[in-house]
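Appendix C reproduces, verbatim, an entry submitted by the partner laboratory led by Prof. M.T., so that reviewers can inspect both the input and the predicted structure.
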Amino acid sequence: MTSDPVLSIRAVSKTFGSRRALDAVSLDVARGEMIALIGPSGSGKSTLLRSIDGLQTIDPPGENGGEGVISAFGGAVQAKGRVSSEVRQARVRIGFIAQQFNLVGRLSLFSNVALGSLGRIPVLRGLFGAWPKETREATMAALARVGVAEYAAQRANTLSGGQQQRGAIARALVQKAKIILADEPVASLDPVSARKVMEILRDLNQTDGLTVVVTLHQVDYALRYCDRVVALKAGQKVYDGPASGLNREKLIDIYGPEFEDVFWEGAPQ
């Protein structure tokens, strides 16, 4: 990892009506890190991830906001409540993976994954499926990498959730993303599929050096697959450190006393 962050968040706030979803959150992400964002429902995890990609505007400085700057690869994504005109350059290198996969159901898995190349090829070629040789080869390689190449010709809406989510990851590979933002990517998957998706993200981080930021409700997955954990509570950052530093007492402080009742077997003591 280098000392210069690939993502920089400075005093970012976001309000929805009277609710403060993010409250002056600051965070640096170094190249090659794999970070879990955890916290109770409504703590601001998804809002922060969407703000990093410029999909959600943040509050301008003033009564609600602080400095309010998000940058990626040294360039502005948004600042002072406005998305930057340079955001497209950043998005080309950021792959966003959503809980509901965001695949086009009527298209084949191959076509969905090939769409990751649209930032580098003429739009008309993509619209008509006239994929260049480089895209075709990259698409099949990405599908093989995540273990679903045999489903390339199958319509996306006929695949299981785990297969679709692996397709979404493959699309980010064809995009040549340097950062993967994954918003609760395993929330709707069965345990076996969920572990496979997390293993793929971890392998891409360790083998390919991709930077991964993943929001998770499953705290055990955060501790198992991510070296660094950032916890949000009521829109504020309440923990930022190694996964090994999250003991039972700290987790109960983050989630509340009810967390004790659903603590998993083998949790940290």
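The CA atoms of residues 107 and 155 lie 5 Å apart. Additional entries are available on request from the coordinating office.
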